[in-house]
Amino acid sequence: MSKIAAILIRGQVGSKQEVKDTLKMLNLQRKNNLILLEDNPVNKGMLNKVRDYTTYGEVTEETLKLLEKRKKEGKKYYALNPPRGGFERKGIKQPKTKGGALGPRTDMDKLISKMV
For the chain, N or C: smaller number of CB within 10 Å? Predict the structure, then answer.
């Protein structure tokens, strides 16, 4: 089964309690943290709920090997740096479909390699 990587892009200040609770269930509490999830309808539903704060997509085996050195010991997340060269042109307040960085994406491996 494939893995989905989710990265918290925006902070939670001013967000609804429902969004904060979902992010807590996903173990996404700090910006630029990444989690790996199984590709199933439950996880996709949670990611869809927080799509205005995160970006997510499928990752390859090479990216998983690259991430292993970034894992915090005893934690369920990976601490990443901000991306070299910045996010997409429209920034972190627009969805990927409008040229921003939020929501589902197909080039998740490219973003992760910029952040490791």
Answer: N
